Amino acid sequence: MAALPNIRLLVAAGLVGLFAVSLSIGVDDLPVDSVFTDAGALQLLLVSRLPRTVAVVLTGAGLAIAGLVLQILVRNRFVEPITTGTGQSAALGVLAVTLLFPTASIAMKTLGASVTALAGTSIFLGIAHRLPPTQPFLIPLFGLVYGGVIGAAVTFIAWQTDLLQYVDVWTNGEFSGVLRGRYELLWITAAMVALAWWVADRLTIAAMGREVSLGLGLNYQRIVQLGLVMVAVISSLAVVVVGMIPFVGLVVPNLVSRLMGDNLKSALPWVAVTGATLLLACDVVSRVIRYPYEIPVGTVLGVVGSGLFLWILFGRAQRA
Amino acid sequence: MIEIKNVSLRLGDTQILEDVSLTMPKGGVTALVGPNGAGKSSLLSLIARLQPLQSGSISVDGLPVDTTPSRQLARTLAILRQDPAVASRLKVRELVGFGRFPHQRGRIDANDMKLIEAALQQFGLMDLADRFLDNLSGGQRQRAMVAMAFCQGTDYMLLDEPLNNLDMLFARQLMRDLRAAADNDKRTVIVVLHDINHAAVYADRIVAMKSGCVVADGSPAEVLQPDMLARVFGYGMDVIDVGGAPLVLHHR
Fold first, then answer.
1. CA distance A246 to B6
2. How confident is the prediction for chain A on average, in pLDDT?
3. Are residues B86 and A214, on separate chains, in Cβ contact within 8 Å?
4. Quick check: B91 and A263 CB within 8 A?
5. What DSSP designation does A29 have?
């Protein structure tokens, strides 16, 4: 446990360092001193580099928190919003809004996505609670099938209506399209993270189950509803603004739990910080690995995330 | 005082409780005994409002459990369910601290800290206080859960088979701790027990249940009679007297 402050320091320093690196890399050179002398350089920083970096940080923190909250609601550590139908339901919502109101703003699309994501996640939760608790791996498996079915419906409708290209944008997350004026809604994610921290004690108790919660006088139903809203809103914002991003919501809560435990009053901020750091690191890699071109950040996360996930799985087995 | 009036419970086609009426006075240790499926756990969870009442009424210190705000009840009674399967990686001290939640909503002050330390001390958890729950044995985890219920500081403590997973030493220790909670802290302890001899020694009162009904209610000496035990458990067993307390030879 003596190593813990060092890990926290490392993660925090990593986030600050990566933030600076993220601002400095791109197709155009952007020397630090030029920002103060060159109007074009300042413009580049404020219109493209800074919005992109902020968007990555907000999305990473948000997805990690959404994964954490979903894992608490489902009482299973092997789920995240895009493996349980939340992301796919959100895509269905954006698709519906796009079809019905072709001129809808990003805010309208997010609202539509949030409504369907809330419905889709509530149905998943209702069914997950009915699965036998003696078979913990049924829940993630059911989630994959459930998400697959909704995803197939999205693809079918999009194919029928010639919108497949849009669906591609929503389902493959990447940040190259983020510019000033097109990402600001993501700040709602920050509000959701703050809200989760505000109710951290309640979430910790809810994670101990319905009966312990009731015994301590916690309104379990209400915290579940609040959690569902947080998961749906964060996931929908990610889908609409940057597209689906895998693994952050799955591995980060597990990593932080391993290192710091589940007392969320102290651990929850680190879930957010670690999520932001992980996603920012992967975004930087996706930008430099075949510079000046980019690969989707989801691809990088697929490799990094599955590696981390295997480590968590085998680490568990060793401990038990 | 806990007043149970005409409580029945049906789950699907199964009658779990049938017209149970029972009064448990404040103070002391009451043991609920009976064979598996007698309805002991269901009765306990109805008192603790973990399940909705279907018929009849239950009140604790005059508070009807179905209409009193949950948080207010959480300051009157604490419940520990059987095998609570808490999978959270919490430290023992953190877990016990959550017992203060109904009073503080998360803001732990100096007084709470004292109560938490006292609960850790009382249940012999000082050495384990900074260990994570998932690194403990089943018995240690069980003691931590009981300490959390104790730390809730309620007049009533309801415990469903708390001796599960405990070896003889810790089972005896826990029963002594519950006895001390009743004697020194004036708590009312209601505990579901399978080991009838623990009930014989540590309980002031034994309530025996069978098939959803209360069949006996009295002091250990009154309830632990061979004919009564045969009626409740379905087979005859001898009862001998050891130092003034009945000892049931149920294993022979």
1. 54
2. 91
3. no
4. yes
5. -
